[in-house]
Design goal:
The chain is α/β, with parallel strands linked by helices. Helix content is about 40%, strand content about 20%.
Length: about 325
């Protein structure tokens, strides 16, 4: 199977490449990434790869083992998208402007990246007859303020530009299934954490980075806002199934753990884990809440269990410990 992964040098992308290698299947994997977040070093930590200049992109060879190539380019480059997608069996679209705060700071950039960038790769899939397309979406920001658990039948009412752009992306995926027959799936990721997330700006990664740099960790607002935290390997299993399970075209799935956890609770758990691992004296304080942030967010994942045969396996306490150990091994000051 030939896989094209946009944003493949980032946390989820590089972890997905590791996961695909572990499946033991022949696969040619092409990454399109502008290296604005992930780096060649992040990719090299999980696989050998070769660089392919954007102006020499060609259809991939027949898979013989697992081969990986990196094309440095931006998803807003329409011509590159059309060339890069030729000859692939599945596109996993991870590249995005991520997070509420960046979208509030620059709504136009958020729209261009998350809507027009996505459209470029849906067009690549249409023109080059790529049969499967998986979009990384976001349940809480798409739906907005609601009484959770969030499910796929709820009407979107996004309260941030990021939520609006992800909602538009889900709409385009549905349209390309309905009109052109591309087997699109949109996965609404929970709050993803785990080893490899050193560049990520989510609460777990930021907390661990600041703790190991002996910096104060700020919790926005009162910390009683809730999220649904999912361990990276559980998420990757859902991505793989979304690209391979039959008869899920046009569907949206909540990919999380069906567990509601406050930010304060996660901070307390991390303080305990760090203390057990010999890291003490971490200071936590509260700051002003962020505009556009929703109050409660956790998901009903029963549809993913029913249609994808997927369910999470890693408990939060175990996942946080694994993640903290990884951060300590790599980031703790000497």
């Amino acid at each position: 199977m030939n896989w094209l992964i946009t944003g493949g040098c980032g946390f989820i992308g590089s972890s997905l490449i590791r996961y695909l290698r572990e499946q033991g299947e022949d696969a040619h994997i092409r990454i399109v990434d502008n290296l604005s977040v992930g780096t060649r070093d992040d990719l090299a930590a999980v696989t050998d790869f070769r660089d392919t200049p954007a102006d020499t992109v060609a259809p991939p060879p027949a898979p013989d083992g697992v081969t990986v190539e990196l094309v440095v380019g931006d998803i807003l480059d329409e011509a590159l998208a059309l060339k890069a997608t030729e000859g692939f069996d599945a596109i996993v679209h991870l590249a995005a402007n991520t997070g509420v705060a960046p979208s509030v700071a620059n709504p136009r950039l958020d729209c261009m990246t998350n809507v027009v960038g996505l459209l470029n790769y849906l067009e690549g899939a249409r023109i080059n007859q790529v049969p499967r397309f998986v979009l990384a979406s976001s349940g809480g920001t798409v739906i907005g303020e609601c009484e959770p658990p969030i499910n796929e039948e709820m009407v979107p009412h996004p309260v941030s530009p990021y939520g609006a752009s992800k909602s538009a992306g889900e709409g385009y995926c549905s349209a390309y299934f309905g009109t052109f027959g591309i087997q699109t799936t949109a996965l609404r990721f929970g709050n993803v954490y785990g080893p490899g997330s050193s560049h990520k700006n989510s609460v777990v990664a930021k907390f661990l980075r600041r703790a190991l740099n002996q910096e104060i960790f700020e919790i926005y607002g009162d910390g009683k806002q809730t999220r649904d935290f999912i361990y990276i390997d559980d998420l990757l299993g859902a991505v793989y199934k979304a690209a391979t399970v039959p008869d899920v075209g046009g569907e949206v799935f909540q990919i999380a753990t069906s567990a509601e956890t406050t930010v304060n609770e996660v901070a307390d758990k991390l303080l305990t884990v760090l203390g057990d691992l010999g890291v003490h004296g971490v200071e936590v304080k509260h700051a002003n809440p962020l505009p556009g942030e929703i109050r409660r967010n956790y998901a009903d994942t029963s549809k993913a269990a029913r249609m994808l045969g997927w369910q999470p396996e890693v408990a939060l306490d175990d996942g946080l410990r694994r993640t903290a150990q990884w951060f300590i091994e790599r980031l703790e000051p000497a």
